[in-house]
Specification:
Blueprint (H helix, E strand, L loop, with lengths): L1 E4 L7 H10 L4 E4 L4 E3 L10 H9 L11 E3 L2 E3 L7 H7 L12 E2 L6 H10 L17 E3 L5 H9 L3 H21 L1 H15 L7
Parallel strand pairs: 1-2
Antiparallel strand pairs: 3-7, 4-5, 5-6
The protein binds iron/sulfur cluster (SF4).
Iron/sulfur cluster binds next to α2.
């Protein structure tokens, strides 16, 4: 089976469906994706606690298991391998991908190291410049040279503030829908709706 998200495919839906039918493949076409989370940014996130919260809720590193392999190294997400290159374009110095990668070749402890990395609660070095999946949604678009330059010079402090609020909202939401709250709610309502002796 093939699951496909529509973005800007050069081939139409019908043509894809026909090809899949010809080869006995089930096709699951998803709605058009027009927005992505703003993740990698130009401003360093100075608040270590916020970096940890962003990482702990990062869908790429956790829910989606969006692991990647680049230059002979394994990475917990698909953003970290390109952190230095992306920041270099913005004139910001950052260490090479090896700070977040695990060497694959000739590594006798590869399995154990990968297992430890995918279970780790420690943010990657790249997380200090990344909002993961907590940043604002932005419409994807092609940019010309001028818009690309503006993107590299963008001040992302407002996006960091957005991620902070977003994480707070998510935490409240999890608390409201968490098992303890659900168990306690009936008791809470019983207490607040019990008629007082003098009013029955
Ligand atoms: S760099 Fe960190 S926050 Fe960004 S996608 Fe990777 S794990 Fe998530």
């Amino acid at each position: 089976m093939i699951g496909a998200a529509r973005t800007s495919l050069a081939i139409g839906d019908k043509a894809i469906a026909a090809k899949c039918a010809k080869h006995g493949t089930q096709l699951d076409l998803r709605p058009t994706i027009t927005e992505f989370n703003r993740s990698f940014i130009n401003n360093r996130i100075e608040d270590e606690h916020l970096v940890r919260r962003i990482f702990s809720q990062c869908k790429m590193a956790n829910e989606y298991s969006c692991f990647s392999i680049y230059e002979g190294m394994f990475f917990r997400c698909s953003v970290a391998p390109f952190a230095r290159e992306r920041l270099r374009m913005a004139g910001i110095e950052f260490p090479g991908p090896e700070v977040d990668g695990i060497q694959i070749h000739g590594n006798p402890h590869l399995g154990a190291e990968i297992e430890a990395r995918v279970k780790s609660k420690e943010p990657l070095k790249a997380c200090s410049y990344c909002l993961g999946s907590s940043g604002p949604m932005v419409a994807h678009r092609q940019v010309n040279r001028q818009a690309g330059k503006a993107w590299l010079e963008e001040d992302n402090r407002a996006d960091i503030a957005f991620a902070r609020r977003n994480l707070r909202r998510q935490a409240v939401d999890r608390w409201l829908h968490g098992p303890v709250t659900i168990l306690l709610l009936p008791a809470f309502f019983a207490l607040t709706t019990t008629p007082s002796p003098g009013r029955s």
